[in-house]
Amino acid sequence: MIDGKKVLFSGMQATGTLTIGNYLGALQNWVKLSDEYECFYSVVDLHSITVRQDPAELRKRARNLLTLYIAAGLDPKKNCIYYQSHVSGHAELSWILNCFTYMGELNRMTQFKDKAAKHADNINAGLFTYPVLMAADILLYQADVVPVGIDQMQHLEITRDIAQRFNGVYGDVFTIPEPYVGKSGAKIMSLQDPAKKMSKSDENPNASVYLMDDPDTIIRKFKRAVTDSMARIAYTDEQPGIKNLLDIYCACTGKTSEEAVKEFDGSGYGDLKLAVGESVVSALKPVQERFAELSKDKAYIDEIIKENADKANYYAMKTLRKVQKKVGFPERIR
Ligand code: ATP
Ligand code: LTN
């Protein structure tokens, strides 16, 4: 609890251009929850280097991502929006938690298996212990809730296991966090292969709609979306392409899948694709406009970066000092 409010933590990697999967599955929910909780939203740049990055590119993308958090509607005076690398507590707590995490647990992580297969030439130890750093992110702020897409549930479970194990030894040190997954948009699929998650690192640009895509590109990508030959619009697993389009539509408009199915009763796939494309264009328009405005204001963004790093450090240190004491590190002499 901070000032009587429950705490929320979430983060995203600056590993590419955000897709509507990131927006509808995570960022949009962050904005919805931001009044109710004391929020920490991090640009998790320590996580990003588990895959090789070009330094100048990473710096640029990290700044764009931080700006995008604000453009999406998060008020940086109320929400702590900051770079993970500006708070050394993340790495320090991560080390300690590494000593409370089993190899066997990490071996089961599907994201590790996927990423290791994708980057076979660089299966580094950071990639393997990535979930421990994520646990440190969350536990450092004593977060009660963590809004994420479905793909991150396994990492939330291991976070809870690590926290419970630590608490079992040292008493109630960490708050046990709950995941928050939105009703629609929790798993947006690729437009070219609805069996695959839409991902910012997909090589096929038609598979993903990027947050910064212009309206014509968005409509074109939806027109090309892979569907089926069943010629009916229903929300069912038998029609994953159509289901995905309906999911996107619902996440953009706030409608339920029943309402959407009723609305498109009797329509052709072409009409559906166009309507979904248009709903995405209007959902993204304000974000794109604010992003363009904010990007011009260097001094404002710099001030946010500084202020919020200080705030994050303050809360992070509180937990870190407590943990260091619990595990038996000597007290600091002032
Ligand atoms: P990468 O392709 O680099 O692995 P990614 O697109 O999967 O990246 P992340 O940075 O891993 O994105 O995820 C940021 C947030 O967006 C997480 O909360 C994640 O659950 C959510 N997210 C990512 N992809 C989707 C998706 N297709 N549908 C819904 N949520 C998603
Ligand atoms: N692993 C997450 C990003 C992430 C995160 C976090 C999300 C790192 N630390 C803490 C929630 C809470 C991903 O989206 N790939």
Describe the protein in words.
This protein is mainly alpha-helical and 334 residues long. The protein contains 13 helices and 5 strands. The chain has helices spanning 20-33, 45-48, 55-71, 89-98, 103-107, 110-118, 125-140, 153-170, 215-223, 240-253, 257-263, 269-295, 298-327; strands at 7-12, 38-43, 80-83, 145-147, 178-180. The strands form 2 sheets. It has a 3-stranded parallel beta sheet with strand order 1-2-3. A two-stranded parallel ribbon has the order 4-5. Helix 1 links the parallel strand 1 (7-12) and strand 2 (38-43). The radius of gyration is 21 Å and the shape is globular. Residues 12-13, 15-16, 19, 21-22, 25-26, 148-149, 151-152, 186-188, 197-201 line the site of adenosine-5'-triphosphate (ATP).
Provide keyphrases for this structure:
334 residues; three-stranded parallel sheet; globular; binds adenosine-5'-triphosphate; two-stranded parallel sheet; single chain; binds L-tryptophanamide; 13 helices; mainly alpha
Brief characterization of the structure:
The protein has 334 residues and is mainly alpha-helical.
Topology of this structure?
Layout: E1 7-12, H1 20-33, E2 38-43, H2 45-48, H3 55-71, E3 80-83, H4 89-98, H5 103-107, H6 110-118, H7 125-140, E4 145-147, H8 153-170, E5 178-180, H9 215-223, H10 240-253, H11 257-263, H12 269-295, H13 298-327
Parallel strand pairs: 1-2, 2-3, 4-5
Bound molecules: adenosine-5'-triphosphate and L-tryptophanamide (LTN).
L-tryptophanamide binds at residues 9-13, 44, 47, 134, 137-138, 146, 148, 152, 155.
